[in-house]
Amino acid sequence: MKRLLLFFSLLVFAAGCSMEAPGSDSGDESANESGGDDTVKIGVSISTLNNPFFVTLRDSIEELAGEKGYELEIVDAQDDSAKQVNDIEDLIQQNIDYLIVNPTDSSAVSGSVESANSEDIPVITIDRSVESGEVAAFIASDNVEGGELGAQYIVDELEEGAKVAELEGVPGASATRERGEGFHNVAEESLEVVTSQTANFNRSEGLDVTQNILQANPDIQAIFAHNDEMALGALEALSNEDVIVVGFDGTNDARNSVENGELDATVAQQPNLMGEEAINTVERLENGETVEEEVKVELELVTQ
């Protein structure tokens, strides 16, 4: 009888051990398969996806993040600074590890950056800077240099003192300020800027504003637009008029227009490289490496 009791006791003990071990191993395997708590989660807020430049930026972020196994949550601010603020607050509530922001308005988004700072979430900004808050890295083209390239092209194509109009981007955006600054660095010495009006980086607004400019200034000889969308809108307004139009960004639409002899030139950025650099910056930060506070991506002037 004692032997029988001992046998059953050993069976119960063995069963208890075998149940515990597989359960524990299974949980570990499940955590490893899903990435567990080690998966890097990145929140991405883009100013607008109604612009090919920022679509390319998003696509490059998605591609490289996917290769590295990062989890992404991407939101579109739709060129609305209030929406972007709310979007970023929502991302922070989702316990993201990093925040990548392409600001709609450099001032309006600053409070959201400070909110991320308070939660110890590293922030990376792309294309446009922020006025306050701590940023681990700012990735952009040299917008001032790009504005100078565009203005100098017009000077080279026309005589000094030629009459030119400027289509400005979204008021308050750092890209608007910097591209305008570069343009005026050259234009104020070599061209006559008859008017500077905002068209909010938007193609349809570029068309409407250019039509109004032509009515008041039918003798303008060139238009410098702070982005390609406004430049392409200006082309529609000009129809067959002999006016030089220069854009900024180097989108596929703009490059095709240059090749077809329509748009005269575009100052080409490389949004794909910006997106890749943002994800590479996340990887460096994740590995505890030092990153550059400001990364400049090369520009090129694309002409006919």
Describe it:
By secondary structure, the chain is α/β, with parallel strands linked by helices. About 50% of the residues lie in helices and about 20% in strands. The strands form 2 sheets. Strands 2-1-3-4-5-11 form a 6-stranded parallel β-sheet, with helices on both faces. A 6-stranded mixed β-sheet has the order 7-6-8-9-10-12, with helices on both faces. Helix 3 runs parallel beside helix 4 and helix 7 packs across helix 8.
Quick take:
The protein has 304 residues and is of the alpha/beta class. Helices cover 50% and strands 20% of the residues.
Quote the distance from N terminus to C terminus: 101 Å
Number of DSSP strands? 12
Largest sheet: number of strands, sense, barrel closure? 6 strands, parallel
Helix content: 40-55%
Strand order, main sheet: write it out: 2-1-3-4-5-11
Number of helices: 10
What's the shape?
elongated
Radius of gyration: 27 Å
Describe the secondary-structure layout.
Blueprint: H1 2-34, E1 41-46, H2 52-68, E2 71-76, H3 81-93, E3 98-101, H4 110-118, E4 123-126, E5 137-141, H5 143-157, E6 163-168, H6 174-190, E7 192-198, H7 203-216, E8 222-225, H8 228-238, E9 244-249, H9 252-259, E10 265-268, H10 271-286, E11 294-297, E12 300-303
Parallel strand pairs: 1-2, 1-3, 3-4, 4-5, 5-11, 6-7, 6-8, 8-9, 9-10
Antiparallel strand pairs: 10-12
Helix pairs in contact: 2-10, 3-4, 5-6, 7-8
